[in-house]
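Possible regression after last week's pipeline update?

I re-ran a chain I had predicted before the update to compare outputs. Posting the input and the new output here so someone can diff against the archived version. Not blocking, just want to make sure nothing changed silently.
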Amino acid sequence: MTQQTYNKALLELAQAGLEAVKQRDESSTAMKTPAAESHFICSWMVQSLKERRFSKLVADDLTQWIRQGRSMGAGANLKGLLMSITNQYQQVKDTSDKLGDKLALLLSELEQQDWLIFTDSEVDTKLKLDSDGQASLIISAPEYEQHIVQGEMIKPINMYVRGDEQQLAKLALQQGLLISQGNKKTALVKHHKTYRLYPKNQQPALALLVDSQDK
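New output (post-update):
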């Protein structure tokens, strides 16, 4: 039996949520306002959590989204969230090989976009980069050299980033890469955030999402 992964569980949840919304929208009696739609999705999530319809791997996500839906209403944009997850995770579903090569292509593209890219120095203590505000991405040399073998990523890689997060997410997705959400507290480079890449794109939590157009 194939073991359930977080990526698969999350995609199944998002697809099921969008299908439920589609069926609701096809009903002639459904109210077509953003507030009504948000209420429906939030209620669907509550029921899904209560009935344990999906893997426990995504239970914390459901709990968080329910909280957001209740406090923010339509502003939580739960449909947009589900669309972003579906689009992104479906896109990388069959592109989990040679992520080391894909990372190299991402770095090259960022460099062409005038980012500063550093992969030749060890990062093992707090550092400061004087970049005059220019976007930058740093990977510790031992990780970049040792966590990639013959183009394949064999261990997680930390990227210390200062720059447009959505630009990073979009360019990474174009290369078939999922990256973690940023964490400023763990960054070893001042004014940067830590983002992680995982072998086979198997992020243990929700990846950094490209904003949905459904706003």
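Follow-up from reviewer: compared with the archived run. The chain has a mean pLDDT of 93. Marking as no regression found.
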